[in-house]
Amino acid sequence: xxxxxxxxxxxxxxxxxxxxxxxxxxxxxxxxxxxxxxxxxxxxxxxxxxxxxxxxxxxxxxxxxxxxxxxxxxxxxxxxxxxxxxxxxxxxxxxxxxxxxxxxxxxxxxxxxxx
Length: 115
Description:
By secondary structure, this protein is α+β, with helices and mostly antiparallel strands.
């Protein structure tokens, strides 16, 4: 698992406005933490869920259908969350973001967090 890869993630049952169900998500957590996930007690991974319901805007990044990503989707920057690694289907990434896509994610995340 590496930063910038997209995997299927089980977000569980939808609760109010939170994302639910199994859906693609971007691994946004840094690779040092990702490489050492098996060595720590808290096995949380920070991800951004994706949706195929396109709305665009300042807090979304479009990812075109490719690789094992079956639909063009949008990364939901404002839905950043940390989940246990067991919720991620790590057998194969759906796709990996390009350098340009990652820069767009980082720019929008910085804006969202007010950094």
